[in-house]
Amino acid sequence: MNGRTDSLAALETRLGRLFVAGLALSASALAIGLVVYLLLPNSPAALLLLTSGLVILMATPLLRVLVSIIEYVRLGDWFFVTTTVVVLVELSVTMIYAFTRGE
Fold first, then answer.
1. pLDDT at residue 49, rounded to an integer
2. What is the model's pTM?
3. What is the helix (H) or strand (E) element at residue 60, kind and residue range?
4. Is the Cβ–Cβ distance between 64 and 18 less than 8 Å?
5. How many other CB atoms are there within 10 angstroms of residue 31's CB atom?
6. pLDDT digits (tens, 9 = 90+) for 2-46
7. Alpha carbon distance 7, 49 (integer Å)
């Protein structure tokens, strides 16, 4: 393999680990929050854990895009940097709209 292929394979490995870590952390917070909620229905801790689990779940794809941008800049692949920045902007606008619309 050449250097570029090795770098892309390493990027895919890092992104896979990021997804697994984000999913595991989110699932743990949601599961613990659910147990706390079932034991103490009006507990602020339950709400905090459930909210944290959802925020982590939503932040995981955003972090993937940020890591991708950094790696593509490092590789000097400007087409993918531009494309990934467009995806980041779209994700950010969508999340901001969703959060402000819910208030």
1. 96
2. 0.76
3. helix 44-75
4. yes
5. 13
6. 777 787 888 888 889 999 999 999 999 999 999 999 999 989 999
7. 36
Residue with tokens 């989110």: 26
The dihedrals phi and psi of 42, each to the nearest 5 degrees, come to: -105, 25
Q: Which residues of 69-81 are buried (b: 16+ CB within 10 A; e: fewer)?
A: bebbeeeebeeeb
Residue 50's domain comprises 3-101
Contacts 24+ apart (CB under 8 A), 50-57: 53/26, 53/27, 53/28, 53/29, 54/26, 54/30, 56/22, 56/25, 56/26, 56/29, 57/22, 57/23, 57/26, 57/30
Tokens at 55, concatenated: 């925020």
